[in-house]
Amino acid sequence: MNNSSPSRKVVVIDGCRTPFCRSGTAFADLRSYDLGRMAVSGLIHRTKIDPEVVDLLVMGTVIADPATSNLGREVVLGSQLPDSCPAYTCSVACVSSLQSFLDCARAIQTGDAEVAIAAGAETLSDAPIRYRRSVRKRLIAAQKARGAGDYLKLLRGLGPSDLLPEPVALAEFSTGEVMGENCERLAKRFGITREAQDEYAMTSHHRAAAAAADGRLERQIVPAYPPPRFKGVSADNGVRGDTTMEKLAKLKPVFDRKFGTITAGNASYLTDGGAAVLLASEEAAERLGLEPIAVLRGSAVAALDPLEELLLGPAMTVPMALNAAGLDLGDVEVFELHEAFAAQVLAVLKVLYDEEFCRDRLGRDEPVGAIDRDRLNTWGGSTSVGHPFGATGARLITNCCHRLEAEEARYGLVAACAAGAIGIGLVFERLDKRG
Amino acid sequence: MIQVERRPDGVAVVVLDHPTKPVNTLSPAVVEEFNQKVAPLLDEEGIRAMVVVSAKPDTFIAGADLELIEGLSETEISNMSREGNALLERIFTSKKPVVAAVHGAALGGGLEVALACHYILATDDPKTVLGQSEVMLGLLPAGGGTQRLVERIGLVAALPMLLTGKRVRVRRAKKMGLVDAITTPGGIAETGARAALALAEGSLKRRPRKKNLMDRFTATAPGRAIVLRKARRQVARRTRGLYPAPPAILECVETGLKNGRVAGLACESDSFGRLAVTPESRNLVRLFHAMNEAKKGIDGGSKAVRRLAILGGGFMGSGVASVSLGLCQVVVRDLSDEVLGRAARSIDDGLKRQVRSGAIRRVEADRRRSRMLLTTQVDDLEGADLVIEAVFEDLELKRRVLAEVEERLADDAVFASNTSALPIHEIAAEARRPERVIGMHYFSPVPKMPLLEIVVAERTEPWATATAHAFGTAQGKTCIVVKDGPGFYTTRILAPYLNEAVLLVEEGARVEDVDRAMKDFGYPVGPLALVDEVGIDVGAHVAQDLGRAFADRGLEGSGAMPRLYEAGLHGRKNGRGFYLYPKTTKKGKKQVNPKIYELLGGKARRSVDAAEIQDRLALLTVNEAIYCLQEGVISSPRDGDLGAILGLGFPPFRGGPFRYVDTVGAGRVASRLEELAARHGKRFESADSLRTPGSRYYVE
Questions:
Q1: Quick check: A239 pLDDT over 90?
Q2: More confident residue, A168 or A319
Q3: Which terminus of chain A is more solvent-facing, meaning fewer CB atoms within 10 Å of its CB: N or C?
Q4: Using a CB-CB distance cutoff of 8 angstroms, which residues of chain B are in contact with residue A217?
């Protein structure tokens, strides 16, 4: 838990992102390096800052491309940022770029940086598909091999199935559960119905489509012209604005064929994209003539049980972050929660006004409260817009800040869950502006 | 320029460092210095090997000092080459190994110094480039290039380098066998010394290039003859016999192959003097100097450009973006997503090519991609220091676009139009700050064409002009500053020339005859092919506007082009103009469009004397150029010559319209124009200054 020290306030100048594209479509030939580069260079273009003033870049990403293992630094080198800007990469599953933001904020608070970029990027169109360990061991040993005899020895013990690629694991290492399976566990435990999930997902898609249609997302999206076809992409291409309860009802459950409720329609989907947020100390923003949208008021990080609470991170970080900011749930008008699955968000919402949970797990006399659905993710969310793992956090922050301005609200709250049972929450206050 | 360091291991390090110039150049003084300080080392007891290296950051040796040749006689110039060749031959035949450690440009004589060494070490760096550039100045390599380059990389690879001045980068040079080994810039003298010592000790051997089938073929006398004959034919076709240098180069190459290197070197020295005093070479050298002069900035207080906005993402807009991405952030705005997609593709293709050739590193290509923002949103244009507008040639549209952008510009931002003929003061008519409005007229394709015509309106302030000039120069263009007016300069002198070509066809000349005559005069492209390239609609428009402006001088222009346009002949853009442009491009001659004759004067054609065609067309251009100087549209004959050569293809070896008049004589030009005026009309009436007896445009 952390409140920003009063002497070094951290302000958000603005955020930008690439359009989010379903994996295997328009961005299929790009690396996460390209997506990160596009988001960061777009941010620099849109905010018009002098790239030389950026002191730090932290990049969140989950699926590492070994060629660009310090993705953040490679993105610095490939963008307008100067060689002198240090950068590193952090991996905290779906909250990676929220972690990037926290790291940048801490650096600003301690005076290690004045201006920073918190970014995230992910591609799921390409995966690091590996040979199996039995083959890898032999390939590495082969570098020392001399002559045919040595090579033949290496072949011993290999069977045909060893040559099949290693299945890419998106499961929790600790529990062996794929995230969707764990969410089924959660949905059943909290009685989240199929209808409720479908309704939530449909609303998310409709809201995303409406926001795109009336231009609310133009400010954050930087158009892309990706190779090989260079066809312009300026909107998120996975949004189904015409989806209906009937259409969603037709889909079969994916993670529990017999008794499950989670389908492809009420879950987020594999997406490619990048996002970046520009933040600074309040003094630096003034000195450089930058106009911040909001100031960071409080933050929280929580870690929970990976089996029964994998996706309940926000249930803890929402009250913790509010505490840090000295606020109640009712004070907040803008909520941006990550929608890993419709069931996950609904479970979190339920748990926040559940007396037992709030008493036993949060040590509270009273429940946290009910979040008004009409204040939550009103411009769409991960279920509809898509979820490039590393980039989502930066998108949530950007959305939150833009909504604070558009809706003339005072306080906004961002929270997300992540694999590994981590949660992060952030509270922002809009700055009255621009003289 | 030369320092020698004697190392304890017996290697002599020869460091080249011109005391005053930023680059190393060769001259008789340098040859003398070499003879005194370096040549004796080849015979000295304690010296086992030598390495030659430059202390300059960007060049090995950039070539010979051209200023020295001016004013010398043919014999004196040939002697310079003989002395140089004697020195280089001494190095080449020395028993002690000499290594050339090359970082940066090794051009002309600089490459010849490296070629005279036994081993060439070079850096794989964007600054390092090798070329035999003499032919571009109407000269030939006079330091052994015609001999040693052929020996090193083979006849087939050497000929394009010798005949076109083509440059190669180190990766390609290594593959060709021109460079023996690649190293890094830091400590290159030490690396060179190590190589020299290893060569002396025998632990390092220079591996001669693997001979392929072609090499074996050209090693035989008949094989060689065939290759040289083909080269001669190609040269004849390309230069149309107008440039004496390429045939001289081939002659020296052949002499060397037939009679040995020494005979070849003698041929070089003889030809060098002969070529250096030809008017062709003198004009090319002057052009080279004029281009360098133009690079010097102009006063007025130019502003730094950190952000460039380009309006219009078409062919011109994306071309301007390509040459600007190395300099600053570039925002390209267009209303059409498709157009922006095409711009993205063409810019990306250009970047990929540059990475492949080694001109830029891969990460630099990504940096340039990051610097570019392609957008349909007008708000993204905010904060630009310079705006270059490249939308359709429509006055209302340009005014609208200017108004839209001006709201988002700081007071000291410059707005430049790429228009080729719309008056700048008209575009600026409703501007909030007309003093920032200027013309920056690029030529297509932008990455290749060297000229930038900067058009200054009456209200344009000097800081705007200086900013445009500085930025254009940074983009690698040669800038001329001209006054606002109908057709500015280049379009104004081109229009009567193209118009006359069309008139000739109307009078019964054949299309191919007109084009051939002008190519024989030295233009790279015939005038009617050029009309097709530019577009018959554009041609018609320009003819109309300029015709109106200069009607009193008889320059109305034939009504032919609008008629052709009405009949559906638009030029290359729709496949039909004076020539046909079928979708499947076959190599070979273009087909004349038979419909042209139907529309212009009928099927019956007559032969017109080539000299007559050349006089009518060239003299109209020349005459118009002189009017432009008289009226202050251009500020000097030098700018006039640069504009005509670099923008319109006026034969460079003739030096441009003003040099042409000085060469032929103003009196002769004036009387020829009188004859033509009497026979063909008012438009040939000569400009005043031509009629002043003995007038010259250049004083030398």
A1: yes
A2: A319
A3: C
A4: none
Taking CB atoms and an 8 Å limit, are B371 and A41 in contact across chains? yes
Contact at CB, B377 and A218, closer than 8 angstroms: yes
Q: What average pLDDT does the segment B399-408 reach?
A: 95
Quick check: A45 contacting B, CB < 8 Å? yes
Q: Give the residue from B338, B355, B366 with the most A CB atoms within 10 Å of its CB, the best one to mutate.
A: B366
Chain B positions touching A50 (Cβ under 8 A) are 306
Residue of A80, A218, A222 with shortest CB distance to B371:
A80
Q: List chain A residues with CB under 8 Å of B410.
A: none
pLDDT range class, residue A433, cuts 50, 70, 90: low
Q: List pLDDT tens digits, range A49-97.
A: 999 999 999 999 999 998 999 999 999 999 999 999 999 999 999 999 9
pLDDT at residue B103, as a whole number: 97
A52 and chain B in contact, CB less than 8 A: no
Tokens 């988001």 belong to which residue? A39
- Dist CA A253 CA A194 (whole Å): 10
Query: Could A45 and B369 be called an inter-chain contact, meaning their C-beta atoms sit closer than 8 Å?
Result: no
Q: Is the pTM of this model over 0.80?
A: yes
The residue written with tokens 């005069």 in the block is: B521
Nearest to B331 among A38, A45, A225 (CB): A45
Task: State how far residue B408 is from chain A, nearest Cα, in angstroms.
Answer: 13
What's the burial of B329, exposed, middle or buried (CB within 10 Å: 0-12/13-18/19+)?
buried
**CB atoms near residue B362 (< 10 Å):** 13
pLDDT over 70 for what percent of chain A? 97
What sign does the CA torsion over B477, B480, B481, B487 have? negative
State how far residue B329 is from chain A, nearest Cα, in angstroms.
Answer: 8
B693 preceded by cis ω (within 30°)?
no
Tell me the H-state helices in B14-61: 28-33
pLDDT in tens, B275-314: 999 999 999 999 999 999 999 989 889 999 999 999 999 9
| pLDDT score of A129 | 79
Q: Nearest residue on chain A to B383, judged by CA atoms?
A: A48
Whether residue B373 and residue A227 make contact (CB cut-off 8 A), yes or no, is: no
Instruction: State the Cα–Cα distance between residues B377 and A240, nearest whole angstrom.
Output: 25
| Cα–Cα distance, A47 to A55 (Å, whole number) | 16
pLDDT at A435: 39
> What's the rounded mean pLDDT across residues B408-418?
96
What are A219's two structure tokens? 């400010």
Predicted local distance difference test score (pLDDT) of residue A63: 93
The pLDDT assigned to B585 comes to 67
Residue with tokens 């492949």: B356
How far from the centroid of its chain's Cα atoms is residue B543's Cα?
28
Tally of CB atoms within 10 A around B519: 18
Distances (CA, A) of A297 to A187, A277, B95, B537: 32, 16, 79, 64
pLDDT digits (tens, 9 = 90+) for B166-201: 999 999 999 999 999 999 999 999 999 999 999 999
Q: Is A415 exposed, middle or buried (0-12, 13-18, 19+ CB in 10 A)?
A: buried
Q: What is the pLDDT of residues B491-513, one digit of tens each?
A: 999 999 999 999 999 999 999 99
Query: Which A residues, 218 through 277, put their C-beta within 8 Å of a C-beta on chain B?
Result: 218, 222-223, 225, 227, 229-232, 234
Query: Active-site residues of A: which are they?
Result: 94, 387, 417
Query: Helices A313-325 and A342-352, interaxial angle, to 10°?
Result: 50
H-run or E-run covering A181 = helix A179-189
**Alpha-carbon distance B316 to nearest alpha carbon in chain A (angstroms):** 18
Strand A411-418, strand A334-337: pairing: parallel
Contact A45 B383 (CB under 8 A): no
Residue of higher predicted confidence among B601 and A198 = A198
